[in-house]
Amino acid sequence: MSDELQFRFVHRRGLFSLEVEGRFGANAVNGLYGPSGSGKTTLLRCLAGLEPQVRGEVRFNGDVWQDEAGCFVPPHRRQVAMVFQQGALFAHLDVRGNLEYGLKRTPVAERRLGFDEVVDALGLGHLLARGTPRLSGGEVQRVAIGRALLASPRLLLLDEPVAALDRRSKQEIFPYLRELFRAFHLPVVYVTHDMQELSRFASRLTLMEAGKIIVQGEIHELLARLDLPIAGEESAGALIDGEVAGYDSRYLLNEIRFSGGVLWAAGEDRGKGTQVRLRIRARDVSLALHRSEDSSVQNIVAAEVAALARLANGRTLVRLVVGDTALLSRITWRAQDELRLEPGKRVFAEIKSVALHV
Ligand code: ADP
Ligand code: MG
Fold this sequence. Notes:
The chain has eight helices and 19 strands. The protein has helices spanning about 40-50, 95-105, 115-120, 135-150, 165-185, 195-200, 220-225, 335-340; strands spanning about 5-15, 15-25, 30-35, 55-60, 65, 80-85, 155-160, 190, 205-210, 210-220, 235-250, 255-260, 260-265, 275-280, 285-290, 300-310, 315-320, 325-330, 345-350. Strands 6-7-8-3-9-10 form a six-stranded mixed sheet, with helices on both faces.
C-alpha cells in the first residue's frame, strides 16, 4: 500500500471557483505552485478537512476521508499536519513546551516520531528552554514544523513555510527542511510561488491557475516543457542532477559531474560524492555553433536542439538534450534565425558559472 492521496473538489465562493482533480505522491515532496489567489491554500484546507462545505472526494492510502455519499472524516482524525507562513506558537510556552504540545496530542500507540529525532533533524536542541519571543523568524518556523511533526502526521502540508522569512533566514532553514524530508519519509505538499525554492526539494510538481490544476508530473519533466505557463516566466529553467567530483578552493568552485559532462558551480565545498541538483535558468544559457576557446564562460557543454518555441516578445525558448537530461535556453528571435536552429541541430550551450550555485 502506498500513502497516495487522491482528491477531487468542486467549490464556488463568490467569484472564485475551485475545480480540481488529482493526486499527490506517497513519500514524495509534492510542490504546489501557482500565482496568488489560484487556490493553493483552499486546496490544502480541503485536504485537511477544514472546508466541510466543499463537495468532493478524498482518499488517502485507500481510506476514504470524504465522498459524495456524505462520508466526512473530521480534521483531527485525518492525521494531517499543516504549517502556515507564520507559524503560530504558544507565547506562554517555551520551545520545549510547544514541541511537547504536538506530542501530547497524539496517543502513545500512534506516536511514530520521537522527540529527540525531531529535535535533532530541526536543530532545536540548544533552543529548548528559550521563550518563543526570543526566537528568530526561521527558528519560529522550525519549531512550528517540529510541533507539527511530533503529532506523528501521515501527511504534512506546508503552506509557504518560508515566505515570511528574509533571504538569510531562508538559506538557514533550507538544510533542515532537506534533512527532514530525507529522514521522515512522509508525503509532503509544499506550497510556494517561488520556483527556485521548490526546485530544491520537490520531486513532483503540481501547477495551479485560477482554481484549476493545469498539470501534475515529475518536476524535471515539467520544468523542461515549452508549452506550460512556467516556461514563459522570467526565471524559467531546467534542473540537472549531478554529483560533486571535486572542489577548486582557489576559485571557490565545485566541480559537478552529470550525464552531459562537467559543470562548475560557485559556492562552498559541498564535499566529494554529494548529490546535487542545479537549476539552470534559461536566460543564463546561450548557444553557439562552435566551442568558443577564449570566452569567459567556464561551462560549455555539447547539446542537441530538441524543440523550439517562439515566444511573443522577440525571444525564443529552446529545449536542448544534454546527456540524458534537458536544458532550456532563452535567446532572441534573431539569434534563432542566424544560427538556423532547428530540432536535431548540434550546438554548444554556454552557461555562466556565476549563475550556478550549489
Ligand atoms: P492562494 O493560496 O493560491 O493564494 P487561496 O486559496 O488563498 O489562493 O484563495 C483562492 C481565492 O479565494 C482567492 O480569490 C481569494 O481571494 C479567495 N479567498 C480566500 N480566502 C477566502 C475567504 N475566507 N473568503 C472568501 N474568499 C476567500
Ligand atoms: Mg495561499
